[in-house]
Amino acid sequence: MSAFDGADLLEEDFPAAEKTTAKARSRDREELESQSVGLEKRITDLNRELEEVERERATVEESRRRFTEFETGRDEMLHDLTRGLGLLEEAEHDARRDAEQMAKTIVEMRDALSKVGSLEDIDTNQADWKVQLTRSLTTIENARMEMNSARLKWSLLTDSPEESIPAEAQPAVAGLRQPQGFGQLCLWGLALTWPLLLLGLAVFLHHILSG
């Protein structure tokens, strides 16, 4: 075999080598494409798994929030309800006590009203008119003490509508204005009672002189 024959054989082998290289490149490309597809699929699966994990995390967070709300709400309502019931029970107890005291005061005031209402005018022609007068004054004084005691217990008895009305706007009695101050009130009392004092003095002197 000559040297030229060897060269010819190499040249004849080139197409086969090129085919082999082309096949290898094709396999490499297919493998890369396969790997790329596999990676894309894996990324898709990971994204799907990540979304599922995010949903689970959101569910867990919502459950944790609701559980915290449950514990906080339970503690808050236990405190508020306990305190509220305590305040209401105390208020109810005070109201019952006040109602009992008010009922007792009503009975006492009705009794005093009945006694004062049953008082009759004093007839000075009767021999015991002084005794009757003393008894009547005692009844009135007891009623006054009962009324003052009731005023001390119940503030509504001391709230007079006239207190909030200016003196100028208060209605006149028998053509006269209401008294202004304690001094004027004393003068009014003296002016209204002096005829009775004179009458009593006259009866007393008559009794002394006739006796």
Structure description:
The chain is mostly helical and about 210 residues long. Helices cover about 80% and strands about 0% of the residues. The chain is built from three helices and no strands. The protein has helices at about 5-115, 130-155, 180-210. Helix 1 (about 5-115) runs antiparallel to helix 2 (about 130-155). The termini are far apart. Mean pLDDT is about 75; it is low at about 160-180.
Low-confidence stretches: 162-179
The residue fraction in helices comes out at over 70%
Structural class: mainly alpha
Contiguous helical run count: 3
DSSP strand count: 0
Radius of gyration computed on alpha carbons:
57 Å
The N- to C-terminal Cα distance equals: 196 Å
Shape: rod-shaped
- What do the pLDDT scores average to? 76
Which H/E pattern describes the elements?
Answer: HHH
Question: Main beta sheet: strand number and arrangement?
Answer: none
Please supply descriptive tags for the structure shown above.
81% helix; mainly alpha; 211 residues
Summarize the structure.
The protein is mainly alpha-helical and 211 residues long.
